[in-house]
Amino acid sequence: MLFNWLIALDVSEVGISWFDFFSVGHICMGIGIFLIFSLFYTIPMSKSNGTGQVKLPLWAVFLITVGFAILWEFIENILLYHFGLKFEGRRDSVANIITDIILVGIGGLGMWILAHLIFKYNKKVWPYYVIGIIGLALWIGVFLILRYFTLI
Questions:
Q1: Tens-place pLDDT, residues 87-128
Q2: Which of 10, 11, 38, 79 is the most buried (most CB within 10 A)?
């Protein structure tokens, strides 16, 4: 098909095309990593009622998220491949690796923007985590639907 190099529509194209159903999973990864590491921002903030010094700034949480994306691609394409645990037993293409790292960054960036919007008007942290977890759950649902349609 004409767009197979861009979007994987078949299992044989997963990991080779720029985008596949795992691409949505990488957005989920970015959201999840940012949510976890933003605890180092929100816990000190909540203990000081938003007035004290924050231990880890949100830009650093974003950099950690992107760092984890790069680390994951090394783990996925070297270790998992070496031990025969890689999906379909093949390494990802360079295009797919780049796209996956960018999509993890997009997931983290979305959470960074959400954090700025919520913390600008509200010093409570629970709305941020509730919205983040709901968003993560919705993206996981999209991932499962796309995976189902790719694998049939």
A1: 777 888 898 899 999 999 999 999 999 999 998 887 788 999
A2: 38
Contacts of 64 (CB under 8 A, 6+ apart): 33, 37
122 in Cβ contact with 42 (< 8 Å): no
Average pLDDT rounded to a whole number, residues 71-87: 90
**Within 10 A of 127 (CB to CB), how many other CB atoms are there?**
13
Nearest to 91 by CA among 107, 76, 101, 104: 76
52, pLDDT greater than 70:
no
pLDDT at position 125, please?
87
Return the SS3 of 19: strand
Of 127, 104, 146, nearest to 42 (Cα)? 127
Helices (H), the chain: 21-37, 39-47, 58-74, 81-82, 94-121, 126-151
